[in-house]
Amino acid sequence: MTLAGTLSLPLRVRVGLMYIGVSGNSFTYIATGDPNADGLGQFGARNNDPVYVPLDANDITLIEPADYAKLDEVIRSTPCLRAQRGQLVQRNSCRSGRNGRLDARLTKVLPTTGGQALELTADLFNVLNFIDRDWARTFLAGDVFGGRVPLLDLVGYDEANSRGVYSV
Prior knowledge:
By secondary structure, the protein is mainly β. It contains three helices and twelve strands; from the N terminus they run E-E-E-E-E-E-H-H-E-E-E-E-H-E-E.
């Protein structure tokens, strides 16, 4: 979404504002360490396995069982994870928050000889961030090219439950 407006002020001064808002980027929560055993994710290769979102603490084996509270908090506070409990996360089903910025332009027209004019402009990009450094910041999730965010790391195998052992 883009909104723009200009206001003419006295003394041939104009102020222009432009707001640009975009939806957040899509990404996938992944488990590193090659949990699906396809050969990718080991020995520095590209990690690409969507994470399984456990239903509860009995649905996952963690190297540190006490870490389930931390994992559960992340799941409960993240809509795309909360909606996919008990299944693999669908690729690109999560989105970072919306981003927006406000730019401003101040213009002054100075008449010169022979009906000509000189126009001076001053641009201020991301005005809201000048007001408060926490406003209008852009957040990207995952790596820039693949949209992957690690959530769990496969560190072993649980023979008794026939599933991987993870660290958060």
